[in-house]
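Dear colleague,

As promised, here are the two records you asked about, laid out in our usual form so they can be pasted straight into your sheet.

NAME FIELD: protein one
SEQUENCE, THEN STRUCTURE:
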Amino acid sequence: MRRIPALLACVAFSSWMAPLASAETSAYPQANQQALELAKEAIALRSVTGPGDKTADVATLFKSALVAGGFSTKDIAITPVADTLYMTATWPGSDPSLKPLVLLGHMDVVEAKPADWQRDPFTPVVENGYLFGRGATDMKLDDTLVIAALLELKREGYHPKRTIILAFSGDEETAMRSGAALADKLAGAEMVLNVDGADGVINEQTGKPAYFVWAAAEKTYADYKLMVTNPGGHSSEPRADNAIDRLAKALLRIQAYQFKPELNDITRSYFQETAKLEPGKIGAAMKAFAANPADKKAIATLSADPSEVGNIGTTCVVTMVSGGHATNALPQRATANINCRIFPGHSKDAILDELKKVAADQSVTIEDVTAGSVATPPSPFRKDFAEAVTKAIHKIYPGLPVIPSIQAGASDSMWFRKNGVPSYNASPVFIKPSESFMHGLNERTPVSSIPPATEYLMSIIPDLSH
């Protein structure tokens, strides 16, 4: 793993924080409006894997916008993969000897039940300065921001030297087969800019940008199935060997267990730089942990913070439980799913062995049931990427901290890294941590984040494709 050099580790920090830009002050009002309107149209299409999936309609919508903006129909392909699809749009560069730049996203979203939401998740609305709807943050707005930026570049007469390929997968939130297929198709790419999510952080108190993070690596996603079986019996005759009891005890042992906290070059830099921005005990814990990953006080503080616990090592948590077959019978079977996000450098098999030791019960079988995930090494540090992302952010917010990080996984970047193609996650959307509802209820993104996001893309895309 390569060390982050001084370019990012010693980025110029400042207490200055600018407010998010407004549409009126933006240099690209047409692109901003197009991104918002296209995002609303895409959110209205329920692109959830399963019955009624409208991912194909989203692809058609995006294709129509690209063709209307000057892309040739022959350069846009919608390709079926199993029960989903992916879309690519190619902007040929002037130098065919250069490997292409891939702009990566996904069109599908996580399921959302209207009865649980304050507003229908698939009826987009702009209210109180926010775009509401499933996909407002993860990640239909990001998709349309990239589309609008590319069309703005075409209007301005930009001609890329390096071919640009816009690539959208169709099942990133589930089986991820289309992402794997895309990565195989584009295995000869030079680099991937993945705009999935929201990587700009807004200060909770001031409402102004606090810092920006980008990811060159991600943790490995893994699912493990725990199961206990026995003959069962009549509920009027309780016995010590109860499948649910045994499973519950194993789960509690796993819940109480902490995998060894650790650092790598990326997370050390992340904690060192973020510590300068975080007040109070969190900032102090970050600084202490970066200096000594065995510091018990720092570990306890960071472990208690849901937004930071994943940065200090592997995490495993129970996500599903099922047991029994009748209300008046002893259970013959009890199962659970443990979801792990594995710190780089550890295999799924090694974590499986560790879980077996922690469960400490041979009657509890544990097997790896992970689908659509592979362990991958970090992408190498690329000076051209680091300079481009820092330049783009500083054009909007001079001096704003730009910090490397790892992601919790799994994103489609994983498939490109598996094929040896450097992939970097760096979404230009800024949001408060308390207002990040990706995969949750009432997902929303501030509309004010659109103009600076457009300016970011209008800088970074030409810089990476010249």
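NAME FIELD: protein two
SEQUENCE, THEN STRUCTURE:
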Amino acid sequence: MSKKAKNGRVEFLRFIFALGILFFHIHKRFAVDGNISIGIKGIYLFNHGYIGVEFFFLVSGYLLAASAYAKSNMPCQYIGTETAKMMWKKIKNVFPYHLFAIILTVIVNGYFLHNTAKGRIAYAIDSWASLFFVQIFGFDSSWVNKLTWYLDVWLVVTFMFWYFLRKHYDVFVKIVCPLIALFVLGYMSHEYHSLAGIDGWTGHFYKCFLRGLGEMALGCSAYSITRQLNKINFTVAGKRILAVLELACYLLVLRYAVTGVDPKYSFVTLFIMCVGLILTFSDVNPCHRVFDKPVFGWCGKMSLLIYLNQFYSIRLIQSLLPAASFPVKVVLCTLTTFVGALVCDKVVAFFIKTKPFTKLMIEGEGE
């Protein structure tokens, strides 16, 4: 069976939301006295751009449920082994990119945040929990590249959900996941009044774990809804109406991302985003084939690299050019992040192709 091509619109949206997250962090780092307007009244440089991470989690939950459903006819008596192999594959795929970014982040942060070699070495050693995706559990370690929290939560929730998706798919996706999403997100709304924030300690784990748990559960439910939607034979007019609705959903999300609206509306924005994602994956939009081109697949790949390589880029510009104007800092941070992302892609591709460490450690790999 041939591998199904990726949804070009989803990949393009990943890229757009990754840029939104980048601009959010630039804005957060340099907007010392509040929101920085881009010249239009009430419009700021993605001061709520963190909402892009919610898109990543929704897509992750959706694809996780889709993967489990594709295996629904396969035996699962060795579910433990299957889960371990799946998790190892996911970690192996993402770890090289994560390692590249975290090494540069440790070097840049260590150099600019500490004045002594001892302090820099201690900083590097204290990054161990971030390196191995276990920071969210509360280990006393420097959260060097805080952006890795997404990977931490994604891996943990995937590990937790896979058994239930494989053993009890129908009940889990149609009953348990909607309840998890409602209870977890409702709790966050009541206690924190916003989806934003990652390092608030709940007493058992960081707040960001709840964020990913509820949103990936919502993404799993979105897959089930999409399957039902795809069974409906819409008219041309019906498809056009749904296409307009899809666009409206993302425009509303964008409006939230660039305005100073109360963060409590991040929850309703999340549900609006989920509706848009269901329509995007359903391909009811008559224009969906426009996005079935390799360039949009490349955009999807770049989204992760932009996400991982932005913190050290922003630190570099902040430390080297503190007197530069905000627009100049935005441009330079963006360019540095893109350069870092492209270099990361090339370096990781080289090591994947040549496998120098594997050949060094395992006999026969060089033949």
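A couple of things worth noting about protein two: The mean pLDDT is 92. The first helix runs from residue 8 to 30.

Best,
R.
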